[in-house]
C-alpha cells in the first residue's frame, strides 16, 4: 500500500517548484536554501522528486542542472514557444555575446576593433550576468562562455553558436547596406577639382 504523501512535503515541493520556475538564472544549493529555508537534505530530496516528475513526456518543461537548478522548456518545444519569450538583453550585448560564443576564446581587444569602446561596458555586463569568464592575456582579456550561458538560453552550445552567428551575419549585412545607402561626401580637394572643371 502506497503511503499517503505528507501535506507539508507537498507544500515544500510546490514552493521549490515555484522558485525554480521564477528563476532567471540557475540557482545553487545555497541560494535555494536561503529562499526556501529548507535544509540541504530536504532540498536534495525535493530536487529528486522534481527530476522524476519532469522526465515524464507529458510535461513540456524539464529540470535543468547546468550551473545550478532551474526549470526550462524542453528542447523539442523551443521552436514553438520562442516568440513568447523575450530577452532583456540589448542588441549590442547580444552581438558581443555572439562574437565571444562563435570565436571563443577571443581577445577583448579584437572585439573592441569591431564594436568600439562600448565593448568594455558590454563585457562587464556579461561578466555580471555570469555568461562569460576571462583570463588575462598580456594587456587584454581572453574571453569565453560559461555553463550558465548555455543554460540561460536552454539549448546546447553548438545550436546556440549557430543561432548567434546568424544574428551576427544579419547585423553585419544591415550595417553594410546602411553604409552603401549613406551619401558620400567628396573630399575638399576633390570638390575643388570638380569646381575647377566646371568653370
Question: Could you describe the 3D structure shown?
Answer:
This protein is mainly α and 199 residues long. It folds into two domains: 7-80, Orthogonal Bundle (Arc Repressor Mutant, subunit A); 91-181, Winged helix-like DNA-binding domain superfamily/Winged helix DNA-binding domain (Arc Repressor Mutant, subunit A), CATH 1.10.10. It has ten helices and five strands, in the order H-H-H-E-E-H-H-E-H-H-E-E-H-H-H. The protein has helices at 7-22, 29-36, 40-55, 78-81, 91-103, 108-115, 118-129, 147-153, 157-181, 188-198; strands at 61-64, 70-73, 106-107, 132-137, 140-145. The strands form two sheets. Strands 3-5-4 form a three-stranded antiparallel β-sheet. A hairpin with a 5-residue loop joins strand 1 (61-64) and strand 2 (70-73). Helix 1 packs across helix 3 (40-55), helix 5 (91-103) crosses helix 9 (157-181) and helix 6 crosses helix 7. The longest helix has 25 residues, at 157-181. It is elongated and about 60 Å long.
Protein topology:
Blueprint: H1 7-22, H2 29-36, H3 40-55, E1 61-64, E2 70-73, H4 78-81, H5 91-103, E3 106-107, H6 108-115, H7 118-129, E4 132-137, E5 140-145, H8 147-153, H9 157-181, H10 188-198
Antiparallel strand pairs: 1-2, 3-5, 4-5
Helix pairs in contact: 1-3, 5-7, 5-9, 6-7
Amino acid at each position: 500500500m502506497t503511503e499517503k504523501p505528507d501535506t507539508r512535503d507537498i507544500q515544500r515541493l510546490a514552493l521549490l517548484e515555484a522558485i525554480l520556475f521564477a528563476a532567471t538564472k540557475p540557482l545553487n544549493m545555497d541560494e535555494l536554501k536561503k529562499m526556501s529555508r529548507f535544509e540541504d537534505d530536504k532540498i536534495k530530496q525535493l530536487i529528486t522528486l522534481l527530476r522524476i516528475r519532469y522526465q515524464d513526456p507529458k510535461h513540456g518543461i524539464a529540470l535543468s542542472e547546468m550551473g545550478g537548478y532551474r526549470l526550462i522548456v524542453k528542447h523539442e518545444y523551443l521552436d514553438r514557444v520562442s516568440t513568447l519569450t523575450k530577452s532583456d538583453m540589448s542588441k549590442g550585448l547580444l552581438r558581443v555575446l555572439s562574437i565571444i560564443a562563435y570565436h571563443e576564446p577571443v581577445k577583448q581587444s579584437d572585439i573592441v576593433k569591431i564594436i568600439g569602446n562600448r565593448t568594455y561596458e558590454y563585457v562587464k555586463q556579461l561578466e555580471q550576468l555570469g555568461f562569460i569568464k576571462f583570463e588575462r592575456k598580456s594587456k587584454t582579456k581572453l574571453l569565453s562562455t560559461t555553463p550558465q550561458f548555455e543554460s540561460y538560453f536552454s539549448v546546447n552550445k553548438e545550436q546556440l553558436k549557430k543561432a548567434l552567428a546568424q544574428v551576427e551575419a544579419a547585423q553585419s549585412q544591415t550595417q553594410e547596406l546602411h553604409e552603401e545607402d549613406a551619401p558620400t561626401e567628396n573630399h575638399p580637394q576633390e570638390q575643388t577639382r570638380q569646381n575647377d572643371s566646371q568653370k
